Automatic annotation (TrEMBL):
Keywords: Acyltransferase, Transferase, Tricarboxylic acid cycle. The keyword Transport does not apply. Belongs to the citrate synthase family. It comes from Leifsonia tongyongensis. It catalyses: oxaloacetate + acetyl-CoA + H2O = citrate + CoA + H(+). InterPro entries: Citrate_synth-like_lrg_a-sub (IPR016142), Citrate_synth-like_sm_a-sub (IPR016143), Citrate_synthase (IPR002020), Citrate_synthase_AS (IPR019810), Citrate_synthase_bac-typ (IPR024176), Citrate_synthase_sf (IPR036969), Citrate_synthase_typ-I (IPR010953). This is Citrate synthase. NCBIfam families: cit_synth_I, PRK05614.1.
Length: 400
């Protein structure tokens, strides 16, 4: 067994580790990844079984509390979340102050940051009841904020949540329902979206989760920490990759360039050209989520009767890349983002909403990590070292 207390003591040695490739910043009991074997487990349960048998909220509870909820715990959790979906009316007005063409990720992070101003009775990091209340509020309100960011971008009126609907169905209605007519949830979309959200729920110390932990280590409240995590997710090397994949597929289609030629440009490392949705810091094998998402892409498009040439391009890209020495030597495989965009597009979401959907999926993981960190007596404020490479001491010029 390891004595963790000794690991947190300074040894007087500093290692330089760009991108934290080899440095563990914490211990965690939430998610296990074996990147060489392509294994992902939530609280010990293999992702394949989780995705098959669960609901989004059941997995959220599992991640946050460590064990599966009993039937009564789950229904109480679900009820509480349904009761907290409404946004303060002043917070709704906040959206109109932002430009109509704002990126929904910026709207999302700003509105989540603003939650600290509206819900000041749940900001304590030390009071378990307040932590629980901010957890419920975030889980209830983030999908509503996300749907309003979408409605704003298309210039449509915001709907009030319908709390008779499940978490996912309520979200679909808020996005695609209108004031003019009742909205019928398509069970194919609902099931597929729930599965995608579950696959995104946690992924241990990725950039956004580490951001949530770093901000939270200062004892900033949960809303502030999650808002920072949303901003970290926004970048195209992280959650923003799902949007970037679709842009890449569309630009291949529109330019008429062959997949082979595009891959050659990637291999030549032409400025700004990468195979988006490929490669991962920890998976040096298939990302197990990518396999499951690819299955969903086929199922959803078939069930909706959609034939999308972008899916054909994606499959061809995968086939070409997986047979190419450049990708084989570097152990680059499709990651979770490679096929999600094609599914979100088929569901009717605009490209700029894709990363927002990722954020809703990842929220339980962020909350679970923030709570684990707050409860861990070994937690210290995050404060990396640096190796100074600047000028030695010099005198300010007497005359300038
Ligand atoms: N296309 C082409 N080449 C790539 C790609 C890619 N997608 N990913 C990595 N490489 C190459 C690098 O150029 C590098 O080549 P080199 O050894 O000749 O210099 C080698 O593979 C190693 O790559 P690094 O960038 O060092 O790997 P790192 O672990 O730092 O980066 C990352 C991982 C950011 C995911 C990277 O693979 C990437 O940019 N992928 C595309 C963006 C993407 O899909 N991000 C989503 C990640 S999953 C998620 O956040 C949900």
């Amino acid at each position: 067994s390891i004595d963790f207390s000794t690991l947190t003591r300074s040894t007087g040695l500093t290692s330089l580790d760009y991108g934290f490739v080899n440095t563990a910043a914490t211990r965690s009991a939430i998610t296990y990844i074996d990147g060489d074997a392509g294994i992902l487990r939530y609280r010990g349960y293999p992702i394949e079984q989780v995705a098959q048998n669960s609901t989004f909220l059941e997995v959220a509870w599992l991640l946050i509390h460590g064990e599966l909820p009993s039937a009564s715990e789950l229904s109480e959790f679900d009820d509480k979340i349904r009761r907290h979906t409404l946004l303060h009316e002043d917070l709704k007005r906040f959206f109109s102050a932002l430009p109509h063409d704002a990126h929904p990720m910026s709207v999302l992070s700003s509105a989540v940051s603003a939650l600290s101003t509206f819900y000041q009775d749940s900001l304590s990091v030390h009071d378990p009841e307040q932590v629980e209340l901010s957890t419920i509020r975030l889980l209830a309100k983030l999908p509503v904020i996300a749907a309003y960011a979408h409605k704003k971008s298309v210039g449509q009126a915001f709907l009030y949540p319908d709390n008779s609907l499940s978490f996912v169905d309520n979200f679909l209605r808020l996005n695609f329902g209108t004031m003019a007519e009742p909205y019928e949830v398509n069970p194919v979309l609902s099931k597929a979206l729930e599965r995608l959200l579950i696959l995104h729920e946690d992924h241990e110390q990725n950039a956004s989760t580490s951001t949530v932990r770093l901000v939270g280590s200062t004892q900033a409240n949960l809303f502030a920490s999650v808002s920072a995590g949303i901003n970290a997710l926004y970048g195209p090397l992280h959650g923003g990759a799902n949007e970037a994949v679709l842009d890449m597929l569309a630009s291949i289609r529109d330019s008429g360039e062959s997949v082979q030629k595009f891959v050659e440009r990637v291999k030549r490392k032409e400025e700004g050209v990468k195979l988006m949705g490929f490669g991962h810091r920890v998976y040096k094998n298939f990302d197990p989520r990518a396999r499951l998402v690819k299955e969903s892409a086929d199922e959803v498009l078939t069930a909706l009767g959609i034939h999308d040439p972008l899916l054909d391009i994606a499959k061809e890209l995968e086939e070409v890349a997986l047979a190419d020495d450049y990708f084989i030597e570097r152990r680059l495989y499709p990651n979770v983002d490679f096929y999600t965009g094609v599914i979100y597009k088929a569901m009717g979401f605009p490209t700029r909403m894709f990363t927002v959907l990722f954020a809703i999926g990842r929220l339980p993981g962020w909350i679970a990590h923030w709570r684990e960190m707050i409860a861990d007596p070994a937690t210290k404020i995050g404060r990396p070292q640096q190796l100074y490479v600047g000028s030695p001491e010099r005198s300010w010029p007497a005359e300038r």
